[in-house]
Amino acid sequence: MAKDLEGKVFLVTGATEGIGKAAALEFARRGATLVLVGRSKEKSERVVSELAAASGNDRIELLLGDLSRLADVRAVADAFRAKHDRLDVLVNNAGAYFKECRLSDDGIEMTFALNHVAYFLLTTRLLDLLQKTPGARVVSTSSGGHRVGKVDLATIAKRDGRAGMRAYSDSKLANVLFTRELARRLAGSGATANCYHPGLVHTGFGRGFLGKSGPVTKWLAEHAGRLLARSPEKGAETLVWLATSPEAATFNGEYFYDRKVASVSKLAQDDALARGLWELSEQLVA
After folding, report:
1. In a domain, 3, yes or no
2. Total number of domains in the chain
């Protein structure tokens, strides 16, 4: 396999399982210097060892942090900066589904904190490195669920006691709006920002949607997932393409599905809402 990514530095969140892990393996096989972000020390170290063994690449580093906590996001960004003076690709892929509404340590609704605010803070904390690295890219994982999402700037950070699919869809719309505004701010720098929908993927992520479902429901969902859902490798194809292909470098501020620009909801095209979300995010992380 061609080592076409040698000399490039990739920072990947959500890389310890699912599509993030599948993409990280592809980047490692192609020679990139990988910096992975994980929450569990034991699990993350095991994944680093697995990726190194499978790829033959020993340039795989680990940064530990709970990305729902602003202090941890800042620490991850600062630790990266302390060792690297370039950032070719930032993959914002960490995320979760929370059935019950609860607040993060910083008082932000947990779904929004992890699925959007972490993307925002990590990216903006490293923005100068991205802007000075030729051809740098930011790739963020969104979802087709953004189509039913809404972003009420007055309530999204706290919500009204309900989380679940509503909060998840809202956070995925936030990913598209964030990408849109980030791309506008990156214009002329040579760096780009795009997001994508991985499709229905059979990973551990989906278990969160089942919550406290009974054993029969979980068994049916597990077997249906194996039959109907994509493999993590298939789900990661668009991520890898956006991060590495020459063709993808020509796009900025777009939303992709299966390596093609896809339509987005009307709200996802609202530039004023995108700017408002950026300003709210700045206030939340200040």
Report:
1. no
2. 1
Identify which of 194, 82, 77 has the alpha carbon closest to the alpha carbon of residue 124. 77
In a domain, 2, yes or no: no
Q: 228 pLDDT band (50/70/90 cuts)?
A: low
Question: Considering 168, 196, 255, 257, which one is annotated as catalytic?
Answer: 168
What pLDDT digit, counting tens, does each position of 105-138 carry? 999 999 999 999 999 999 999 999 999 999 999 9
Domain that holds residue 113: 9-285
**CATH (domain of 58):** 3.40.50.720
pTM of the model: 0.91
pLDDT value, residue 26: 98
- Catalytic, 119? Answer no
The β-bridge relationship of strands 60-64 and 33-38 is: parallel
For tokens 């790739």, the residue is 139
Residue 1 counted as domain residue: no
